């Protein structure tokens, strides 16, 4: 069995508070979704704004394989907007629970909602759209009324039906049973749209498929209203690997799409998020690492390569000998068994003090124990910063890079940003480095506090962490950034 995927990252996903995407960004995401193999791209709500209308138009004209869908209400203007934008289909919803009907349409009866829905479906069909019709808040609707609404939609020639768990109150058992009943009753495809208010969206969506859903609505990284929609990556991987249900998704494209969407939506993926989180294939514990190095299946349910990722072994207070040996080899250092023991003990000491052990900390510990210092490719020679009222924070910087002096200037939203921008400009010919994480802690109290900055830098698919600790936040940030750079440029 192959289940069809409607991806709603660009519609419900964009309804995530604070997220808004430009036409160009939406097109980039739509192309990534298409490459990943989703069947239907719900590209937005054509009636919502000029930008939304244009985005749907541009995506519809992009020659993608996927069906392009616009969301809409049971209103002729929404249908016109979807059709005029060139969408192939409309996901059109009518209120179906009494709470939605009475609050949104005071004075209107259930029968009047059915009548409005039928007229809207007929009109959408006249406008040439494929109609996917949903009862909104279906999981809180009277099931008998829902059936009446769906029966009328089918009579009006709707092409597909959707059951929406709008406020995420469904359970896997109910999803299974409901979809089974809908599947038995209707000959047209039935879909499930789930939300994660109780953390059950993935389970509900998987059980909806077990119950017979032909199509499911998901969003990459679980974006969506409130707690979000069912996450594409979780649902697809659970269906394929745990339930033996096929999708058309090219799993190699899941991680690149997730990263693109994280970047453009500016919604950070939590590190412990299944499949796409930073820690999903990262191991620190010595017992795990030692076993993983012998057989990766010991502590990994699936290989990271399946979804275009790599395994990462990190050192921290839970590390053991095997992890240290591996990292030493990776960094190109040689040590005696005693030196290894000392390195491990110093790493654990940092962790025992409650501190995160960064990659740069590890290198410093190794070099201290081995009494060597590898040459740094990037060194700070001079820095000056101007910041104040009515002027743009500006930094000028002199670096020695591979033995050559480079002078650059940068502006930014504050002195740290300006200094980092100046460094980025200075190194642009040497490496394409991205700052993917920046965290500041004041270790002591007061304005003279010791500030601990941890940066996370990325070059291609390699990510390193580095620390700077100073009473001057700009210097702590730059120290951390340059330490990280040196690890990546090595
Ligand atoms: C669960 C979901 O995710 S639903 C999808 C949510 N998505 C959006 O809201 C998309 C972005 N929305 C928008 O840009 C705007 O809300 C628009 C353009 C759709 C409508 O804007 P406005 O006309 O200013 O209306 P407003 O947003 O204040 O209220 C929504 C209206 O839609 C009506 N409505 C809500 N659901 C439906 C429906 N399924 N069918 C018909 N009308 C509906 C409401 O009753 C309300 O009507 P009223 O203005 O007569 O009271
Ligand atoms: C329509 C929709 O997004 C919902 O019911 O959740």
UniProtKB/TrEMBL annotation:
Q: What is its EC number?
A: 2.3.3.21
Give the molecular function GO annotations.
2-isopropylmalate synthase activity
Ordered alphabetically, the record's keywords are:
Acyltransferase, Amino-acid biosynthesis, Branched-chain amino acid biosynthesis, Isoleucine biosynthesis, Transferase
Broad class of enzyme this protein falls into: transferase
Membrane-crossing segments per the record: none
Q: Show the catalytic activity.
A: pyruvate + acetyl-CoA + H2O = (3R)-citramalate + CoA + H(+)
Q: What InterPro entries has UniProt attached to this entry?
A: 2-isopropylmalate_synth_dimer (IPR013709), AIPM/Hcit_synth_CS (IPR002034), Aldolase_TIM (IPR013785), Citramalate_synthase_CimA (IPR024890), LEU1_arch (IPR011830), LeuA/HCS_post-cat (IPR054691), LeuA_allosteric_dom_sf (IPR036230), PYR_CT (IPR000891)
Annotated ranges, domain Pyruvate carboxyltransferase: 3-255
Which pathway? Amino-acid biosynthesis; L-isoleucine biosynthesis; 2-oxobutanoate from pyruvate: step 1/3
Q: Which PROSITE patterns match?
A: AIPM_HOMOCIT_SYNTH_1, AIPM_HOMOCIT_SYNTH_2, PYR_CT
According to the lineage, what is the superkingdom?
Archaea
Record's family?
Belongs to the alpha-IPM synthase/homocitrate synthase family.
Q: How does it assemble?
A: Homodimer.
**Cross-referenced HAMAP family:** CimA (MF_01028)
Q: What does this protein do?
A: Catalyzes the condensation of pyruvate and acetyl-coenzyme A to form (R)-citramalate.
Q: Name it.
A: Putative (R)-citramalate synthase CimA
Look up and give the organism this protein is from.
Answer: Geoglobus acetivorans
